[in-house]
């Protein structure tokens, strides 16, 4: 996401590298697009694209039109049009790549959603913006107490103040429909602001808050993933994964989006596999499917009378038995096919020790010294006791 020397302030602006959001690594922001056309000039008689992408808190982005032809670049803080008042954001993308982003998000150039850019933010605008951002944590804490006191079945996940400090958007998640009219009146009276409630899904909440996944990397939904497709348990079944909700669920509580990444490859590989609900009619009896190995192309079957003993077959052998069963013929016993697999030449894997011939415990203290000390002390005790006994006998 960013270089090691880059750090961000409370407003999301880089502090360490001092590149104001235009560093080569893409800065520290979520869903950042690298402007690879920034060092290229436009053809003759072509005007630069007057719509810019502006970033707000937690990677929220919108498109705004530069009607006043203000000289702006990536990283500039601008005041943009909202209803009511104005908001403060950071320019995240300019030029021809904005057309690509608008097409990707299905936003028309002449759409009413494309508001105006008023001006570059003054120092007064930035100070008001910073003070409003500093209020968010305290307002969120008090708002959650109000929600619990009113007994509403909802969760306030995040609060975003408008740049002028006159309005705040409350993001919440709820399983059922919530009547929050009383809540809006109480929030507006307590904090003296305009209140807007916006419900988000569990995946959108995880994308806004961010975090580290079980793979050790940042969440896909908060870094690059924008299309939240539905994930079903059949994706785990096709990939032969155990249906353990603790391992299959992400931080949002839903099934992990990465279950869909390799699903198409598994479906292509399973086209050659027979259906698992088919029974094999053999000379020795009926065989029932037990499990499969998709990568190696193996299937395990067991006789219905003896389900404990499994036999390993290849996909070709299983399809051959199924073809014979369709012609009202029985295949050979599973032992015959299992012998063919056992006769295959297995190639042994030779691994090289990257560490070398040195032992990994060469830095540990040897333990035999303690044993020698114990043995030496014991011999000394025995010698003393024997000498004492001999002296007593002589007396």
Would you count the extended β strands for me? 12
Structural class: alpha+beta
- By DSSP (H or I, 4+ residues per run), the number of helices equals 12
Helix content: 25-40%
Strand content: 15-25%
> Which blocks of ≥5 consecutive residues have pLDDT under 50?
18-22, 342-347
CA-based shape:
extended
Quaternary organisation of the protein chains: single chain
Q: What is the CA-atom radius of gyration, in angstroms?
A: 35 Å
Number of domains: 4
Strand order of the largest sheet: 1-2-5-3-4
Q: Summarize the biggest pleated sheet.
A: 5 strands, mixed, barrel
SSE order:
EEEEHEHHEEHEHHHHHEEEEHHH
- The separation of the N and C termini measures 89 Å
Q: What's the pLDDT, averaged over the residues? A: 82
SSE topology:
Blueprint: E1 51-55, E2 61-65, E3 77-81, E4 86-93, H1 97-104, E5 115-120, H2 123-134, H3 136-150, E6 155-161, E7 167-173, H4 181-191, E8 194-199, H5 202-209, H6 220-223, H7 233-238, H8 245-248, H9 263-269, E9 280-281, E10 286-293, E11 298-303, E12 310-314, H10 315-326, H11 334-342, H12 368-394
Parallel strand pairs: 2-5, 7-8
Antiparallel strand pairs: 1-2, 1-4, 3-4, 3-5, 6-7, 9-10, 10-11, 11-12
Helix pairs in contact: 3-4
């Amino acid at each position: 996401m960013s270089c090691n020397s880059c750090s961000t302030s409370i407003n999301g602006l880089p502090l360490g590298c001092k590149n104001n959001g235009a560093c080569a690594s893409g800065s520290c922001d979520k869903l950042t697009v690298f402007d690879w056309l920034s060092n290229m000039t436009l053809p003759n008689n072509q005007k630069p694209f007057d719509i810019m992408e502006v970033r707000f808190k937690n990677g929220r982005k919108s498109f705004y039109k530069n009607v006043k032809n203000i000289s702006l670049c990536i990283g500039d803080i601008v005041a943009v049009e909202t209803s009511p008042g104005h908001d403060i954001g950071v320019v995240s993308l300019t030029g021809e790549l904005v057309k690509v982003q608008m097409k990707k998000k299905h936003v028309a150039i002449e759409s009413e959603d494309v508001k105006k850019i008023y001006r570059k933010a003054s120092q007064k605008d930035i100070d008001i913006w910073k003070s409003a951002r500093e209020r968010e944590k305290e307002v969120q804490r008090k708002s959650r107490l109000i929600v619990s006191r009113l007994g509403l079945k909802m969760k306030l996940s995040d609060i975003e103040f408008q740049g002028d400090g006159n309005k705040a958007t409350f993001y919440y998640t709820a399983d059922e429909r919530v009547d929050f009219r009383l809540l809006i009146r109480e929030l507006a009276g307590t904090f003296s602001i305009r209140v807007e409630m916006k419900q988000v899904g569990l995946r959108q909440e995880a994308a806004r808050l961010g975090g580290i996944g079980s793979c050790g990397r940042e969440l896909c939904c908060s870094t690059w993933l924008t299309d939240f497709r539905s994930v079903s348990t059949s994706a785990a079944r096709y990939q032969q994964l155990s249906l353990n909700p603790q391992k299959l669920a992400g931080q949002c509580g839903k099934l992990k989006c990465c279950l869909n990444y390799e699903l198409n490859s598994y479906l292509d590989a399973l086209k050659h596999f027979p259906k698992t609900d088919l029974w094999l009619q053999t000379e020795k009896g009926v065989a029932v499917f037990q499990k499969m190995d998709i990568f190696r192309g193996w299937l395990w079957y067991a006789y219905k009378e003896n389900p404990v003993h499994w036999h390993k077959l290849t996909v070709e052998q299983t399809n051959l038995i199924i073809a014979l069963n369709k012609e009202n013929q029985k295949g050979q016993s599973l032992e015959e096919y299992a012998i063919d697999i056992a006769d295959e030449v297995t190639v042994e894997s030779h691994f090289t020790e990257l560490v070398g011939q040195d032992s990994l415990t060469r830095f540990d203290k040897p333990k035999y010294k303690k044993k020698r000390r114990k043995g030496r002390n014991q011999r000394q005790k025995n010698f003393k006791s024997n000498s004492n006994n001999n002296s007593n006998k002589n007396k």
